[in-house]
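input
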Amino acid sequence: MIAAVQPYIALMRLNKPIGTLLLLWPTLIALWLASNGAPDLRTVTIFVLGVLVMRSAGCVINDYADRDFDIHVQRTKQRPLTSGQIKAQHALMLFSGLLISALILALQLKFYTILLASVAGGLAILYPFTKRFSNYPQLYLGLAFAWSIPMAYAQVQSKLPLETWLLFVSTVAWVIAYDTLYAMADKADDLKLGIKSTAITFGAYDKQIVFALQCISLLGFAAMGMLRGLHWMFYASLVCALILCVYQQWLCKARHPAKCFAAFLNNNYFGMVIFLGIFLN
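output
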């Protein structure tokens, strides 16, 4: 029984929670700020479950879209769809089930939030295919990962104040930065396969642009903090996040794929320290 379920766990990346965590941190940040540090437990539960379900759905549709490419990439050739452990039609059935689950969760929220959730669903479906036609697929991922922020404000405050969009832009910049690091790990394979990414588009300036995007993200968070009058602990968390960014630059200085992937993984701590800075306020 466990052996039969294992490929589906791998397809949804439940055994690799990094993507879920990277989606969770901006969601929690938005919920805590929108509710002035006292979010409703029911709302937090729905959003956390939504993060888990939508991240799983995104992984399934991504692997379905990339199933003919992944077999040519060393890091992905053993994924369940590519290796034949799961049939394509079964993956689509799982994806449909996850979307239905996400809809059930969304129906527990306000109508305004449901409307925004429909946009999130569209972005999740679109993203895996953007690598075919756009040089900036990481931008689409950023929009998808940051969309939980306006959803959180809509649910808690029934409005989208300025700080919503400061958080949104900051998160989009951060996502583009860390997913470029992820793409740098696969750059050689992507070039051979004709897959587009910001790691390829940025060329020799990839590291510099990644760091610039991270600085833009931190400046956006700082502007939001000044707008809200947050205390020194929040700004201390931004300093810690900046140190992590410098460390990521050191990791990927030679653009070694494994080091670039390690720099990508390190972004979990970037999101965590910013959330802790807000939580401790």
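quick obs: The CA atoms of residues 223 and 229 lie 10 Å apart.
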